Amino acid sequence: MRREDFPILARKVNGHPLAYLDNASTSQKPKQVISAVSDFYENHNSNIHRGIHSLSEEATEMYEDSHVKVARFVNADNGEIIFTRNTTESINLLAYSLCLGLKAGDEILLTEMEHHSNLVPWQQIALKGGLKVRFARVDDSGAIDMEHFSSLLGKRTRIVSVGHVSNVLGTINPVREISKASRDNGSVSIIDAAQSVPHMPVDVKSLGCDFLAFSSHKMLGPTGVGVLYGKRHILESLPPFLFGGDMIRQVDFGNSRFNDVPWKFEAGTPDIAGAVGLGAAVDYLGRIGMDAVLDHGRKLSDYARSRLLLTPGIELYGPSGKRGSLLSFNLKGVHSHDVAEILDRDGIAVRAGHHCAMPLMRKLGITGAVRASFYLYNSKDEIDRLESSILRVRKVFSK
Ligand code: C6P
Q1: Cα four-point dihedral sign 290, 296, 299, 300
Q2: pLDDT of 397 over the 80 cut
Q3: Which of 33, 175, 318, 332 lies at a CB distance of 3.0 to 4.6 Å from 29, suitable for a disulfide?
Q4: Closest Cα to atom 8 of ligand 1
Q5: How far is CA 205 from CA 73, 138, 274, 282, in A?
Q6: Count of alpha carbons within 13 Å of 215, Cβ hemisphere only?
Q7: Same domain, yes or no, for 193 and 261?
Q8: Are the CB atoms for 42 and 223 separated by under 8 Å?
Q9: What's the pLDDT score for residue 50?
Q10: Residue among 192, 203, 169, 177 nearest 323 (CA)
């Protein structure tokens, strides 16, 4: 699918054509995104919302246009999209701003499969404020134990924050059901959509969540830009996270009044070129269609699973049915870093290690895993190369 749009994919690594299977970490960028960023710097670079001159007006319009494009992409309304630096910052913003209003003993409900970005911010705020973080169990199939989840959702649960797609297991969590249960319980619902928005159609209205966070760099856009969707009335009532320029309406020595949403949450000069690049990424994905992106990712992930199931010595993690576009595994008796290093010699880029999910690793009884993650430019041929390379690793280590 449009491999030729991605200049980096023409590269060779260690003498082999690059098979980039580390997309859950960050995706590659098409020339349309790269050109949008360089066009911004070459022709429009200026600060936004400040200067009354042509360049500043152009930059402001381009930056705001990206808010609108991203809002449309996830079916949010204007004013409901905040640009942050990444998913991590989006969740930190919520941890700070939402927890300011909580009391000691209030609870935050997560799951055992969360990425550190959706765990450490809550844990640290909870430690400071006497809040309690609870974790819904992950069962042997790699799914959230929904009975356990329901048993933890109680009178003191103020916040429920759950990953849409696990970056280790690939599990697609029932976030619509979770958002509804949270709403019925009077809790705020948050979806960590870092691994879903790049790979499938996501509609915040249909999911019914209060907040949803994701990163530009995993969906063909530049690094340095993240997104936080929030229901407008909640954003309006929430205190800001960062203070300074651009997020204010009126400042006196004694106090300040804040700007409207989303700018109340966008203090200081943002990554303007990055936001413009994200707009171009959303245009690109929109032209392909997210249903087609999902279909392609699913086919590759199913194909990879079917091949690796037959590979001797492989232990696979995550559900056997519908999964995100990734697959984690270990080769028995070989450290995941050694596998990744030998695959790299064959030009195959995968991630290995704990994948920023140490508690989940502990739960699985492993210290790390190898992860192959796919995107719209990957092919079955690359998965065949992965399989042959793994067989070579096995040979090296069985000597
Ligand atoms: N996971 C991975 O290789 P940032 O780094 O803020 O853009 O995204 C954080 C994040 C949050 N939630 C989930 C489910 C994620 O997968 C990630 C990023 C990468 O798995 C880098 S650790």
Answers
A1: negative
A2: yes
A3: 33
A4: 87
A5: 12, 27, 26, 18
A6: 20
A7: yes
A8: no
A9: 78
A10: 169
CATH code of 128's domain: 3.40.640.10
Instruction: Give residue 2's pLDDT band: very low, low, confident or very high (50, 70, 90).
Output: confident
83 CB contacts (<8 Å, ≥6 apart)? 66, 67, 225, 226, 227, 262, 266, 270, 271, 275
- 324 lies in a domain? yes
Q: In the chain, how many domains are there? A: 2
Active-site residue, from 204, 356, 357, 393: 356
pLDDT per position as a tens digit, 221-230: 999 999 999 9
309 and 282 in a common domain: no
Q: How far apart are CA 342 and CA 312, in angstroms?
A: 17
CB under 8 Å to 226, separation ≥6 — which residues? 83, 84, 85, 86, 87, 88, 89, 90, 213, 214, 215, 216
10 and 80, same domain (yes or no) = no
Domain that holds residue 304: 3-21+289-398
CATH number at residue 9: 3.90.1150.10
pLDDT confidence of residue 1:
66
Using the 3D structure, point to which of 287, 317, 336 is the last residue of a domain: 287
Give yes or no: 209 in active site: no
Domain boundary (287, 316, 347) is at: 287
CA of 349 to the centre of ligand 1 (A): 17
Ligand 1 pocket check for 199: Cβ under 6 Å: no
- Cβ 90 under 6 angstroms from ligand 1: no
107 and 200 share a domain?
A: yes
Q: In which element (H, E) is residue 63 found?
A: helix 54-73
26 falls within a domain: no
Query: Is 27 inside a domain boundary?
Result: no
Ligand 1 geometric centre to CA of 52 (Å): 38
Average pLDDT taken over every residue of the chain: 97
Give yes or no: residues 263 and 294 share one domain: no
User: What whole-number percentage of the chain has pLDDT above 70?
Assistant: 100
On whether both 294 and 268 belong to a single domain, the answer is no
CA distances from 158 to 103, 134, 135, 152, 189 (A): 10, 11, 14, 12, 9
Q: Do 266 and 198 belong together in one domain?
A: yes
On whether both 363 and 276 belong to a single domain, the answer is no
3-state secondary structure of 64: helix
The response to whether residue 296 sits with its C-beta less than 6 Å from ligand 1 reads: no
